[in-house]
Amino acid sequence: MELRHYTKLSKADLIQRIEKAKIEKNIRILAHNYQRPEVQEVADYLGDSLDLATKAQALNCQSVLLCGVLFMAETAKILNPELRVLIPDLNATCQLADTISIEELHQAKEEHPDAVVVSYVNTSALVKAASDLCCTSANAAHVVNSIPPGREILFVPDRNLGKWVADCTGRHLILWNGFCYVHEYMTEADVETAKTEHPQAKLVVHPECTPRVAHHAHLITSTNGMVHFANEAEELIVGTEIGLIERLKREYPLKKFHPLCASAICATMKLITLDKVCWALENDQYPVELNPEVIAMARSAIEKMIALRGITNPPSKR
Ligand code: SF4
């Protein structure tokens, strides 16, 4: 059945078909924290990008449907080459990951031939394959600290995360000039408004936010860090994509959560809809295919990061 027919099905019908397909095809749904609420509801596991990739390793299934953006599905494939990894929409790409191409990285490496290249997980498989180390927002400072002092470090592609890591570690980083528009466009005016409206709430922000906004935060942390912090706070202003609020409300129904910016919506994350999830499951679409050499090289950069595991960034409070 073509995708257009699925748009006519009710939510209840879609959910019933999704649950049936999951069992019949031995497939699990992994969804990122920024996914639509109805997609989060049918997921077997919710998390950040590395969580999703490592969770795929632990699941006893033939396939996973990754509800997120393309680099996340690629990362799951890199860590699980034997697993069939599907993504419901190939147009769901990450604007931040798209700020650096493999050609641009090669050029930067020529300009800094001695630099250790640290790439944020929000990069293509090709960029990871040409990097020395990978990092996430949860462990970037520790990854940088694992590099011997005195080594030049090229950090790609998020300039805001890179600046924050440089501040946390005291290391000089050569920063790529990329940013995530969802976080970049949160402003100090948003902070002022949110704090006035919710004076008791603590402000937590993602390190992809600008330093001007992050400066006002009680805590700068990854999305998983925000979920953990919600355990000890009664009311939070959440400075990241608004999809995380759905997860927080579900996990802490008695607590209050407010978006720092209600228009902080990642358009490509929201391309994944319930009808596409159902269609993808029933039609085995779209398989993520990567060159085995790229998988091996990218995997090396990710595994070096995982070998540093058990570590996450120290809490970054004002
Ligand atoms: S929120 Fe930003 S970093 Fe995350 S997937 Fe969307 S564009 Fe990429």
UniProtKB/TrEMBL annotation:
Q: Which Gene Ontology terms cover its molecular function?
A: 4 iron, 4 sulfur cluster binding; metal ion binding; quinolinate synthetase A activity
Question: Does the keyword field hold Iron?
Answer: yes
Q: Which InterPro entries match?
A: NadA (IPR003473), NadA_sf (IPR036094)
Say which enzyme class the record assigns.
Answer: transferase
Statement: the UniProt record of this protein carries the keyword Iron-sulfur: yes
- Which pathway does the protein contribute to? Cofactor biosynthesis; NAD(+) biosynthesis; quinolinate from iminoaspartate: step 1/1
Q: Which cofactor does it need?
A: [4Fe-4S] cluster
Q: Biological process (GO) annotations?
A: 'de novo' NAD+ biosynthetic process from L-aspartate
Q: Which top-rank group of organisms is this from?
A: Bacteria
E.C. code: 2.5.1.72
Keyword list, A-Z: 4Fe-4S, Cytoplasm, Iron, Iron-sulfur, Metal-binding, Pyridine nucleotide biosynthesis, Transferase
- Chain segments annotated as coiled-coil in the UniProt record: none
Name of this protein: Quinolinate synthase
Which organism is this protein's natural source? Answer: candidate division TA06 bacterium DG_26
